[in-house]
TrEMBL record:
Gene3D superfamilies: Tetratricopeptide repeat domain, Vaccinia Virus protein VP39. InterPro entries: Methyltransf_12, SAM-dependent_MTases_sf, TPR-like_helical_dom_sf, TPR_rpt, Ycf3/AcsC/BcsC/TPR_MFPF. It holds the Pfam family TPR_11. Signal peptide: none annotated. Residues 342-432 form the Methyltransferase type domain. This is Tetratricopeptide repeat protein. TPR repeats lie at residues 4-37, 72-105, 106-139, 140-173, 174-207, 208-241. Keywords: Repeat, TPR repeat. It comes from Undibacterium parvum.
């Protein structure tokens, strides 16, 4: 027994010093003498995980727990190995068991938060990180991971505060530095974001995500050549980095180099990038068939990232006029009584102040959760729903007197399904008010995808669909909806009236 103890102590010393191979050999020698030795099995499993052998780690730690299931640390380490294997539910169960055995186990609480965050249970994850920090206030990993939760919720300032707390506790923490850059980027502090990415890269020069994020911030500053250089660094580290290829494509588009953009998007496809999104981007460059609608994930991501500064950008940069234009058209056509109204694609709620005065009920629907969070803060809506518009409308038969869609149909090419759903959701005589961007006089299609990644529709197509789906045209006026890079965007402002049943 004394020989086993000496072997184990020697193995532990090597393990703690980072000498994993000789430590593992000594643990195996212990197991040759005593195959049911808990510590040797458990710690050999820990080394397996450190070596990236997660399945072997799970098997070894489970053998140890079969000998003694009362060891909280082993349950926690089993959870970490299961998480490495992409099994967050099983990992969560192991963390829960560890916490049950040792309620003040800060690491298990922190790891439990990670599993919950991966499972999308962000509010529960925050509570778990809070519990870990209540026990161990100087816990940099808990601050960092809690910051990731806040970032996922769109609370970039809270996320940034947590990353800075983590960095105060551990200055050499490249993941927290990179995440700090992401939060600063979300807050539109692009120069500061670049500085944080560069701080991360000084500590970890092969950090592909930091190079890619740095390129994205440089793109925002219109430093296109520097952005391409940053993406190239990321691709030298990870040649199959689909996002970096896609972002190169975005820069080439900004530089009006369509052939290079096409090559980059195709390379992103070859590396396993999101096919629906990349096919959509390629279609804007004339490659492949035109999709009938923008991918939901693309629209959701686009507006999630704009949620915090969407209103300011539209109103002060783009001169956005559609809410007022549509309100004026609706006012000319609506009946005197209060209406049951749907703000379709409500975003942050810019149309809410126009719709609320003549609506006894005001509902909003949007694909972006983060946009809806902003809309909720206006207190103008009786109901807010995150859903795809046509799917939502098909579940609301004869519910609304008015459906308004400002700058929404530009992300839908084929409008037939939407018109049918809107007709179903409107009461007899109800109004469907919306805007579309006007098609070019040189284009003969009903709709086509523009380089701006938005659809344009011909006036005759809108008129034909209206009649096909049981609407009369109450009003259809040409208008300038907004500007894009200093150019006026010509649109149609349309009010349709549902026929009597």
């Amino acid at each position: 027994m004394s020989d086993l103890t000496a072997l184990l102590q020697q193995a532990l010393a090597l393990h703690q010093a980072g000498d994993l191979r000789p430590a593992a050999e000594l643990y195996r020698q212990v197991l040759e003498k005593q195959p049911q030795h808990f510590d040797a099995l458990h710690l050999l499993g820990v080394i397996a995980r450190q070596n990236g052998e997660a399945q072997a780690a799970v098997e070894l730690i489970r053998q140890a727990l079969a000998i003694d299931a009362s060891q909280a640390v082993a349950h926690c380490n089993l959870g970490a190995a299961l998480q490495d294997l992409g099994q967050p539910e099983a990992a969560l169960a192991s963390y829960e068991r560890a916490i049950c055995l040792k309620p003040d186990y800060a690491m298990a609480l922190q790891n439990r938060g990670n599993a919950l965050r991966i499972l999308g249970r962000v509010d529960a994850a925050l509570l778990s990180y809070d519990a870990a920090l209540a026990i161990l206030p100087d816990y940099p990993e808990a601050f960092y991971h809690r910051g990731l939760c806040y970032q996922a919720l769109g609370q970039s300032q809270a996320a940034l505060d947590d990353y800075q707390q983590a960095l105060q506790l551990r200055a050499r923490y490249p993941q927290a530095l990179c995440a700090s850059g992401v939060a600063l980027h979300s807050l539109q502090h692009y120069e500061a974001a670049i500085a944080e990415y560069e701080n991360a890269l000084r500590l970890q020069p092969d950090y592909a995500e930091a190079w890619c994020n740095r390129g994205s911030a440089l793109h925002k500053l219109q430093e296109y050549e520097a952005a391409l250089d940053s993406y190239q660094h990321a691709l030298e580290i990870r040649p199959d980095y689909a996002k970096a290829h896609e972002y190169c494509g975005n820069v080439w588009c900004a530089l009006e180099q369509p052939q290079q953009a096409i090559a980059a998007y195709q390379q992103a496809l070859a590396c396993g990038g999101d096919a629906s999104q990349l096919d959509y981007l390629l279609a804007t460059l004339g490659v492949g068939a035109t999709p009938v609608t923008a991918p939901s994930a693309y629209v959701r991501q686009l507006f999630d990232q704009y949620a915090g500064h969407f209103d300011q950008h539209l109103q002060t940069v783009l001169g956005y006029q559609l809410p007022a234009l549509l309100d004026a058209a609706i006012t000319r056509q609506r009946p005197a009584q209060q209406l049951a109204t749907l703000d379709a694609g409500c975003g942050t709620g810019l149309c809410g102040p126009y719709l609320r005065p003549y609506s006894h009920s005001l509902s909003g629907v949007d694909l972006s959760e983060k946009m809806l969070e902003q809309a909720a803060q206006t207190s103008l809506y009786d109901e807010l729903t995150c859903a795809e518009l046509s799917v939502y409308l098909m579940k609301q038969p004869a519910r609304f007197d008015l459906i308004m869609a400002a700058d929404v149909l530009v992300y839908i090419g084929d409008l037939a399904a939407l018109f049918a759903a809107a007709k179903l959701a409107l009461r007899s005589g109800g109004l469907f008010a919306f805007s579309v961007e006007q098609g070019s006089a040189t284009q003969s299609e009903d709709f086509y995808l523009q380089a701006s990644h938005r659809y344009a529709h011909s006036g005759t197509y809108v008129q034909r669909l209206a009649h096909q789906h049981g609407f009369s045209i109450a009003e259809m006026q040409a208008a300038i909806a907004r500007q894009d890079q200093g150019a006026d965007i010509d649109s149609w402002v349309v009010v349709l009236k549902a026929s009597q049943y």
